[in-house]
Amino acid sequence: MPANLDALLRYHTIDLCLQNRFKKWTCEDLANACADYADEVAPRDSRSIPSKRTIQQDIKVMRSADLGYFAPIKNESGCYYYEDEKYSIKNVTLSKLDVENISLASKILGQYKGFDFFKDLHGIFERFESRLQIQIADKLQSNIAFENSQAINGQEFLKPLLNAINEKLVVQITYQKFGDISSKIHQLHPYLLKEYQDFWYVLGWHPASNAIKTFAVDRIENIEIKTDKNFIENLNFHNDTYFKDTIGITFTGDNPEKIVLHVDNEFAPYLIAKPLHQSQQLVETKEKHTIFKYLIVVNQELENILMSHANHISILTPINLRESLKQKLVKALNNFS
């Protein structure tokens, strides 16, 4: 069963308490210890003490196979203790499947350059795992190949930007757009880091524009944290829904449109396997073609994708999108004339 951070902190605290066999630990004692430790890790406005039922459930989980602890926790007269004096959940080793899963995650996340905690994930094994398990992880990773992404400017700013987002800090960035002769200074209240086609972007409130604005991280030359500025939150911005109707990084603010594609059956299986957008619907399949329908905002990224598949698709609606791509295709044809 998955465990959230608060639960994991409680398991850690209960484990520390039960290793101290010179004290009798009641549910109330364990709850207060958990509250104290939580305040040390992440101070809060008000002290939150777990309920007796929460502590009992935590002990049930620790005793079980859910997280692989199998903790030998005993109860006598309302007091808890470890039956095995040498036991600790920190001594629990990872299974072969655990090692394989973490190794795979390390390999995948390691492709995102600029985040040291992704790159260093494999080093976790060396702190608590046997040499044999490390060899299992290395062998698994050697059998996985990814497209080699090129080093992109600005990757050193990813972690500072993420920290600023998490800590709600205002940043001042030195930024030079493509085509500009010189760089400019921008103040930004960052909300989100987004990756698209190997490039990273940071979105946030831009006071000079009085709007949410997107900056390409590879065009950033310098970042400075402005501790003297108050962070402005936007209650209308939600990370998980902001790009819901959009492909790529260009947010126009326009309403999504119904787009209907006529796709030849040579290419249709690829769209079925990997939809262009989460709104994709298969309308009908004929002998030689398939009709797909979308509800999506028209932007440059969408047009680029449709252009890349122009030899397999045609746009039935909207007409203005069809005409826009038609003009681009005519220009492309002239380039090869």
UniProtKB/TrEMBL annotation:
<feature type="domain" description="WCX">
    <location>
        <begin position="256"/>
        <end position="333"/>
    </location>
</feature>
<feature type="domain" description="WYL">
    <location>
        <begin position="157"/>
        <end position="225"/>
    </location>
</feature>
<dbReference type="Pfam" id="PF13280">
    <property type="entry name" value="WYL"/>
</dbReference>
<dbReference type="InterPro" id="IPR026881">
    <property type="entry name" value="WYL_dom"/>
</dbReference>
<dbReference type="Pfam" id="PF25583">
    <property type="entry name" value="WCX"/>
</dbReference>
<dbReference type="InterPro" id="IPR057727">
    <property type="entry name" value="WCX_dom"/>
</dbReference>
<dbReference type="InterPro" id="IPR051534">
    <property type="entry name" value="CBASS_pafABC_assoc_protein"/>
</dbReference>
<protein>
    <submittedName>
        <fullName>WYL domain-containing protein</fullName>
    </submittedName>
</protein>
